[in-house]
Amino acid sequence: MNERAPDWAQDVSRIAVLTGAGISTDSGIPDYRGPDGVWTRDPGMEQAFTHQKYVADTKVRRRFWHWCGDLHQRDARPNAAHLALADLEAAGSAVRILTQNVDGLHQKAGSTPRKVLELHGGMATAACLRCRAKTPTGDVLARVAAGEPDPACHDCGGILQPSIIMFGQLLDQAVLAHAAAIARTAQLFLAIGSSLMVEPAAGLCGVAVENGARLVIVNRDPTPYDDLATEIVREPIGDAVPRLCAMLTPSAQSMMSER
C-alpha cells in the first residue's frame, strides 16, 4: 500500500458503517436532497414519502408506485463503494453495515445479509397496511405496469406499501436498538453518503463517538455531525470508499503495526 494511512485507520478491528443515499448514486439511484435529487427535481415527491399523505390520497400512492416502477426498471447494480465494503468484510474485518437505504445493494454486493441492518426497511417486499400480508414488490410493480396504478391487497383490499419506513412512521425499535449496540462497540464509525439530517439514524454517529469510536464522514456536503468527526472526506464516494477500505483490511493493519 503506497499511501500512508492516517492515525484513525490504525489498530481498528471493529468497524460500523452508516450508509445513506449518496453511496448508491453511482448505481443510478438518485439521492433525495442533492442537486439532482428526487425532491430537488420534484419537491412534491416528498409528500409521497410521508405516511399520512400516502394513506390518505390515492393520487399520492399512484405517484409513488410510478416512481418505484421507474426505479425498478433501472435494475441497479452495486458500485465500487458497495463492493469495497463487502470485500473488507470478506478480508476478515468485523464490519457491520447500518444502512438508511432501501435498495438492497449491500447484500447484492456480497455483504452478509445478517450483518446489514436496514434501518428504514427495504423495497424487496410490500405489506398490506390492514392485514399485514406481504408480497414481493416486483409482483406489485408488475400489476402497476399492467394498468393498476394503485394496486390493493389481493387478500383484503387494503392499501399496499413497500416495507419501508416513511416519514411519520417509527423505526423498528429492535433494529434501532441493535444498531445502537453496534455503534457503542465500534472502534471506527464510517458515515458514508448521508446528509445525517434524518434522526434517529443520524444520531448513531453521536452514540459511537460518546463510546470512544473515531468518526469519519464521507459526504459531498457538510453535515450536522461534522464537528464530531475525526476526519471529513469530500472526494467522490466511488473513489474514497475503496481507498479507505484498502487501509482497513487486516493485512494493511498488520503492515501498519510492523512499522
Name of the CATH first level of the largest domain = Alpha Beta
How far is the first residue's CA from the last residue's CA? Answer: 13 Å
Tally of individual domains: 2
Question: Could you spell the SSE succession in H and E letters?
Answer: EHHHHEHEEEHEHEHEEHH
Mean of residue pLDDT?
Answer: 91
Task: Output the structural class.
Answer: alpha/beta
Approximately what portion of the residues adopt beta-strand conformation? 15-25%
Keywords:
Rossmann fold, six-stranded parallel sheet, metal-binding, 259 residues, Sirtuin, SIR2/SIRT2 'Small Domain', NAD-dep_sirtuin_deacylases
Task: Give a short summary of the structure.
With 259 residues, the protein is an alpha/beta fold. It has helices at residues 38-41, 51-56, 58-73, 80-90, 105-109, 137-145, 173-185, 204-210, 237-248, 250-258, and strands at residues 14-19, 94-99, 116-118, 121-128, 134-136, 160-164, 188-192, 214-218, 231-233.
Secondary structure elements and pairings:
Blueprint lengths: L13 E6 L18 H4 L9 H6 L1 H16 L6 H11 L3 E6 L5 H5 L6 E3 L2 E8 L5 E3 H9 L14 E5 L8 H13 L2 E5 L11 H7 L3 E5 L12 E3 L3 H12 L1 H9 L1
Parallel strand pairs: 1-2, 1-7, 2-3, 7-8, 8-9
Antiparallel strand pairs: 4-5, 4-6
